[in-house]
Amino acid sequence: MAAITNVNKSFENPQQVFITNVLGTARVAYLCAKYKKKLIYPSTGAVYHPEFSPYAKSKAIAEEIVRGIIKSTPVVILRLYNVFGEGMNKDSGSIMYNFLHDKEIVVYGNGEQTRDFIHVRDVIAIMEDALKKKWNGKIVNVGMGQVYTINYVAGLFVYFRGLPIVYKPPHREIKWSIADISMLNTLYKKKLTKKFEEDIKELVYAN
Fold first, then answer.
1. Phi and psi at residue 124, in whole multiples of 5°?
2. How far apart are the first and last CA of the chain?
3. pLDDT digits (tens, 9 = 90+) for 64-116
4. Domain for residue 14, yes or no?
5. What's the CATH code of the domain at 115?
6. What is the DSSP letter of 91?
7. Which whole-number Å values give the CA distances from 39 to 32, 36, 189, in the listed order?
8. For the chain, is the Cβ count within 10 Å smaller at the N or the C terminus?
9. pTM to 2 decimals?
10. Which residues, in sequence order, are CB contacts of 71 under 8 Å at separation 6+?
11. Is 32 inside a domain boundary?
12. Rounded to whole angstroms, how far apart are CA atoms 25 and 85?
């Protein structure tokens, strides 16, 4: 969980991103293999498009390292999608954090990009469940399997915060992203919490 996760900042200092995300992961993987300890590795859905940022590339390489010990060591790879909820900070790289704290609701591009958002409470519960042996050796997408446009998410913050949307030139980014959660549904038998709008409201009113 010590990775550098801010996509935009990864362009500013890619060397540090690779040192932390790749070499740091290699060290953890080595120690887990040496001492036969289970490794639950928090990867990212961004590994499907490593060309889009140093962050995505670093996580793809790190994941390959982890996959290298999967036959000899208990390993679970969780490809997290857009995690939101309590505990977000400015370095997390979450659009939700920006919508929650900035003085304007800034949308880059036309806002029709889609994202699969999952609440941190579900991610924590899935990680705890992943301690079970049935998860060993599995690579699992962790999302809701549904998407919202950035315009829709921004609109919720506009409603609850009373601020305008400001559109700015687009970033180089994935236009459409959704998790294939078929493996997650096979392994994880609890229901994911589906109260997106209520969770946004609680975030805003808690700050």
1. -60, -45
2. 24
3. 999 999 999 999 999 999 999 998 988 887 899 999 999 999 999 999 999 99
4. no
5. 3.90.25.10
6. T
7. 6, 9, 21
8. N
9. 0.94
10. none
11. no
12. 25
Report the candidate in 179, 120, 123 with the shortest Cα–Cα distance to residue 148: 179
Distance in angstroms (rounded) separating the CA atoms of residues 197 and 30 = 42
Q: What is the CA radius of gyration of the chain?
A: 17
Q: Which residue has the tokens 């998407």?
A: 147
- Dump pLDDT digits (tens) for 7-26: 988 999 999 999 999 999 99
Residue 157 in domain: yes
Distance CA 66, CA 60 (A): 10
Name residue, tokens 């060993």: 136
Structure tokens belonging to residue 49? 């498009």
Domain that holds residue 116: 83-122+145-179+193-207
Q: What angle do CA 53, 55, 56 make, to 5 degrees?
A: 70
C-alpha distance from residue 155 to each of 33, 50, 86, 149, 189 (Å): 47, 29, 20, 10, 32
Instruction: Supply the angle between the helices 196-206 and 150-161 in degrees, to the nearest 10.
Output: 40
Q: How many CB atoms lie within 10 A of CB 176?
A: 11
